[in-house]
């Protein structure tokens, strides 16, 4: 495999050290750019605004026995995150084992942010495509619901003064956040990791792979070549054999072959496990053609997790709606149960 640096350019050697090597905290939300190695990415970056960190939720104060996670492609802000949260808090999924007294984390792809320091007009032709305005701004969602937020934009939304990227929301304070570029294939892709304040050995990640294409310089004739390079880099960044952090990854892998897709297998070969499925469901992408694109994977090298369960959420029984809470993807609700109670470190 051709390795890449933080700008996604081939280097011919193993990429930079895994992120978990910086166990005490990741340095920044802005990924490292080296324009002389991959000038295309500089154009993508000029079109977007800065990353955002908000801590509006309280610090985790009590010992916990597990946590609940949503992984969801929110369709460039079309999804109604507030309605989904209301149903969860009202107990709609209590039979799955969710509880209001446990920490809650949302790993979001295609989160939408408008205005701010996004350039009023495009400064480069590279963007993620035009949209119709009127989306749910992820910053406004966090502020309205009093949640902590980490947001790392990947690309602009056409001529509209907005961008999209990965986001992590939580009902407790977050810490140690890092954003990093996946190998460049078709679009700029920034993956995002963070952990709860006081729990540095429990890392959450949100990622979104390209839909197709091949990386520069190799694998053009292999199915999913670009996504395979991105998946291998993602696994490498999330897993450090010398560090015993547990990791939960929520991702839109754009993997039409489901669990048989080489990208899913690449992440498993890299050291991640698929969450155990609950229920009988075959797709997560909810459009005219329905495909299994979204996954929750995890790593628990020290045996911290007793089990990790995932359930697909439908808006109505029987999945008979054109959209799912406004998105073209189903949310995946994950329940993580710990082997033993976990106590946060003091502030």
Quick tags:
single chain; 347 residues; alpha+beta; Deoxyribonuclease I, Chain A; six-stranded mixed beta sheet; 5 helices; 14 strands; disordered N terminus
Low-confidence blocks of residues: 1-27
CATH topology name, in short, is: Deoxyribonuclease I, Chain A
Percent helix range: 10-25%
Overall CATH architecture: 4-Layer Sandwich
Number of E-state strands = 14
Q: What is the CA-atom radius of gyration, in angstroms? A: 19 Å
* CA-CA gap between termini: 42 Å
Helix count from the secondary structure assignment: 5
What's the overall geometry? globular
Mean pLDDT: 88
CATH-assigned homologous superfamily = Endonuclease/exonuclease/phosphatase
What kind of sheet is the major sheet?
Answer: 8 strands, mixed
CATH class: Alpha Beta
Strand order within the widest beta sheet: 1-4-5-3-2-14-13-11
Please, what is the oligomeric state?
single chain
How many distinct domains?
1
Based on helices, strands and strand pairing, what is the structural class? alpha+beta
Quick overview:
The protein has a single domain (19-342), classed as Deoxyribonuclease I, Chain A (4-Layer Sandwich), CATH 3.60.10.
Write a structural description:
With 347 residues, this protein is of the alpha+beta class. The longest helix is centred in the C-terminal third of the chain and has 14 residues, at 225-238. 49% of the residues are buried. The strands form 2 sheets. An 8-stranded mixed β-sheet has the order 1-4-5-3-2-14-13-11, covered by helices on one side. A 6-stranded mixed β-sheet has the order 6-7-8-9-12-10, with no helix packed on it. The protein has one domain (19-342): Deoxyribonuclease I, Chain A. The protein is built from 5 helices and 14 strands.
